[in-house]
Amino acid sequence: MVIKKSERIVGKTLVFRDAGINDADFIYSLRVDEEKSRHLSKVSGELESQIRWLREYEGRSNEAYFIISSLENIPFGTVRLYGADKDRFCWGSWIMINGAPPHAAIESAMMVYEYAINHLGFNSAYFQVHKSNQSVWKFHERFGAERTKEDEVQYHYTLSREAINASMNRYRRYLVDGIVVQGGKS
Questions:
Q1: Which residues form the domain of 53?
Q2: Residue 150 lies in a domain
Q3: What would the pLDDT profile of 138-157 be if each residue is shown by its tens digit?
Q4: Total number of domains constituting the chain
């Protein structure tokens, strides 16, 4: 299985747009915000390092990094799919601005799973969440994620296809018509 980039993925009220150099300021502002980034890997350097990372990302395959925005292109956050391992994928870099619509978290998670499972063909997900990020790990556990191990800093999770399907059905109102994928990339 391979993670493919797409130019746009349209959900019910949100859009995932492939991140590019023009998004460096927005991404950097999220990454250096002390409240938002306290559960993420630390950013080193200045805005230029974010631009450099985005340039490198453009040349990489098997990874997709999206800006989460409204249908009107107002940016709300980021999310990244990476780490393809046979029929499972990893996702993270999931950050939302303060003031994002209350449904943005659940709809964006649903969009991640809809894209990865029904468009890319993956069967399960895995990811890590900082132990101190209680609201996020509780969100994932409500969604059906199973905690498989922990280290000093993080909980490690897997989410089976069955659990994904069950949650996709339970929360279907947030993504009634699924997603529309526009402009696939290699």
A1: 6-176
A2: yes
A3: 999 999 999 999 999 999 99
A4: 1
pLDDT tens figures, 9-47: 999 999 999 999 999 999 999 888 777 666 565 666 689
**Rounded CA gap, 106 and 99, in Å?**
15
> How far is 161 from 50, CA to CA, in rounded Å?
34
Q: Is residue 184 part of a domain?
A: no
* 51 to 7, 57, 83, 148, 166: CA distances (angstroms): 19, 10, 22, 35, 39
Tokens of 123: 């069967």
Query: Strand 88-96 to strand 124-130: parallel, antiparallel, or no bridges (unpaired)?
Result: parallel
Q: Does the pTM of the predicted model rise above 0.85? A: yes
| Paired residues of 126 in beta bridges | 90, 158
Integer angstrom CA distances of residue 77 from 47, 69, 104: 17, 7, 9
